[in-house]
Write a structure and sequence with these properties.
The protein has one domain: Protocatechuate 3,4-Dioxygenase, subunit A (Sandwich), CATH 2.60.130.10. It contains six helices and nine strands; from the N terminus they run ααββαββββααβββα. The two termini are 28 Å apart. 33% of the residues are buried. Pfam families: Dioxygenase_C.
C-alpha cells in the first residue's frame, strides 16, 4: 500500500504534538491526520468555464500564458487509514495574479483587471495511487484575505468528500488572516500549510508545491450514494 510521503519538518512537528492530540499513541500511529475542512468561500465559480482541465495557465488553444509565478501543484488523496483514493475528482480554484476570481460578483466589477488568460478553476481525476496534478500560479493575497491560498474540493461520484483550502507556509499574511486564524488547533493549522519551492534549473522561475489531502472517509464510503 502506498503511504503518505510527509515533509520531514512536518513529520517531526506533528510527531512532537501527536501524543497530546490523540487519546492513545496507537491511534496516532495507525491513522492519518485528517485534512481540516474549511469554508468554500464566496467565489466558487458560479459559471463553470468550458475549459476545466488541470492546466490553469493556458486556456484552450490560446498560446498566451497567465500572469503569475508558474507552480506545479502535485499531491495525493488518502483516506484516514492511508489507502489512496482513486478515481476521485480534485477541483481547485483561486484568484488570478491581479486578485480577481472567476465569479461574476468579482470578475464583473473588476473586468478591466481580470487576467483573461488565467483559467481560475480546474479539475483532475486521481490515479490508482491517489495522485493528482495541476499547473497553476502561486496564490496571491487580496483585500480581505492577507493569506494567499488555493481552494479545493474532492468529489467522488455524486458525493463531496471535503472542501478546504491551503496556504503558503511562512507567509506573513497568515497571521492576519481571519480564515487561518479560525483554525484554533495548532495541528490543523500545520495541516493546511504548503511549501512552494523553486524548480531546479527552471529558466522561468517555476515553483513546485506538494500537498496531501486526507479525507475522513474510506474509498468504500466514497462509493456510497448522496449524503
Amino acid at each position: 500500500m502506498s503511504r503518505p510521503q510527509f515533509d520531514p519538518n512536518r513529520r517531526a512537528f506533528l510527531g512532537a504534538l501527536g501524543a497530546s492530540a490523540f487519546f492513545t499513541p496507537a491511534l496516532f500511529a495507525e491513522q492519518l491526520l485528517r485534512t481540516p475542512p474549511m469554508t468554500e468561500g464566496p467565489f466558487y465559480p458560479d459559471k463553470i468555464p468550458l475549459d476545466t482541465d488541470n492546466d490553469l495557465i493556458i486556456i484552450g488553444k490560446n498560446t498566451t500564458p497567465a500572469l503569475g509565478e508558474v507552480t506545479h501543484l502535485t499531491g495525493k488523496v488518502f483516506d484516514v487509514n492511508g489507502a489512496p483514493v482513486k478515481n476521485a475528482v480534485v477541483e481547485i480554484w483561486q484568484c488570478d495574479a491581479n486578485q480577481v476570481y472567476l465569479h461574476s460578483s468579482d470578475s464583473g466589477p473588476k473586468a478591466r483587471q481580470q487576467d483573461k488568460n488565467f483559467q481560475g478553476f480546474g479539475r483532475c481525476t486521481t490515479t490508482d495511487k491517489g495522485e493528482y496534478r495541476f499547473r497553476t500560479i502561486k496564490p496571491v493575497p487580496y483585500p480581505g484575505r492577507p493569506a494567499p491560498h488555493i481552494h479545493f474540493k474532492v468529489k467522488k461520484g455524486n458525493r463531496e468528500l471535503i472542501t478546504s483550502q491551503f496556504m503558503i507556509r511562512g507567509h506573513a499574511g497568515n497571521a492576519r488572516d481571519g480564515v487561518f486564524g479560525g483554525l484554533r488547533d495548532v495541528i490543523d493549522r500545520e495541516l493546511i500549510l504548503v511549501d512552494f519551492k523553486p524548480v531546479k534549473d527552471s529558466k522561468i522561475g517555476e515553483l513546485q508545491a506538494y500537498y496531501e489531502i486526507v479525507i475522513g472517509h474510506t474509498p468504500a464510503d466514497a462509493d456510497m450514494g448522496p449524503k
